[in-house]
User: Fold this.
Amino acid sequence: MSNAGPSNQGNTHPVNGDFDSEDDFVLGAAAVWVCCDDFLERPLPRPRNNSHYTGHQRLGDLLDGHELVIYNKIRMRTDCFKRLSWLLEQKNLLKSTRNMNVDEQLMIFLTIVCQSESNRETQHQWQHSGATISKYFMIVLNAIYRLRHDFIVPPYFNTIDPFIETSGSKYRPWFDNCVGALDGTHVPCVPPPDNPEVWRNRKGFMSQNVLGVCSFDMKFTYMLAGWEGSAHDARVLESALDGRHKKFPTPPEDSGYANRGCFLAPYRGSTYHLQEYRARRGRPRSKRELFNYTHSSFRNCIERTFGVWKARFRILKIINNYPMKKQVKISIACAVIHNFIRMFQHDDRFMTQYFQDGIPVSEIDLENAEQYVN
Assistant:
């Protein structure tokens, strides 16, 4: 009987860490060396936001620098900014965190809405990640949106508007009972993917239809946003009137106004727009034209209010890719900030430019002109 060879004769792999030959050991060591060498030669990841000029330093430069610099950046002066920041903190709507204080959170938000900056641009300027920028933008947006009932308030129905009272015989006594002007405008939007066609307005652009009411000192007293661009103005108004939860500022029943008869419209079939009167270089030729001319001059405060609103916040002309609910909140939040600036920032450059009674927006700022549908 012959001696049989070892049962593992064909197996040349090491067992329990032992190598059968020096060749196996050398090959194993070489493999380990190659792996270690590749790991050591691999470049370390570079942080994207590696500037020594931090967001906190940028904030300090803006608040302590020239007033024109911060005004061009966020459309308000330092004192107005600090007042708004203090208000949001006092109402417990914003809180400082380890990464960002309240001033920086608010400054980033205002920079985005006033300059329509993208998330990537904001990351580089303020040295924060994209997720951090998005997080605090939404936090500040919700905080300002919650101020809407404090700053977008209905007018007084039992007194003559101070603007009318000081206008002399131009509007008195025919418009003594007027409390504001109403109109609709379109704001560009990124529509939801399920049905984008309904968001096209009459000119074919993607937009949301915004209904606004303003006082004659150019403060918003009501705003309804979120209707698709294809919706007719009358349909949007009807929706505002039918829903009590939408709080349209109709006069109370005991004020002498009928709830549905509180709108003063111009005569149809007669010249109305100020541009039409100026184009023919003539004065009104009849009683109806005289009324329409005065009505148009009086009502164009809502056009000028929309004009300064869009001139102040560029995001209302070039919207970023946000969810639809977020886009609606942005329109309302910008109206809140507009009213806040109107109340606490006197001699504002934009308001001085647009506060010209009876002047069409096209003559005030040609780049910001819009064809309004009445």
Residues 1-17, 254-259 have pLDDT under 50 and may be disordered. The beta strands are 181-188, 207-214, 220-228. The first strand starts at residue 181 and ends at 188.
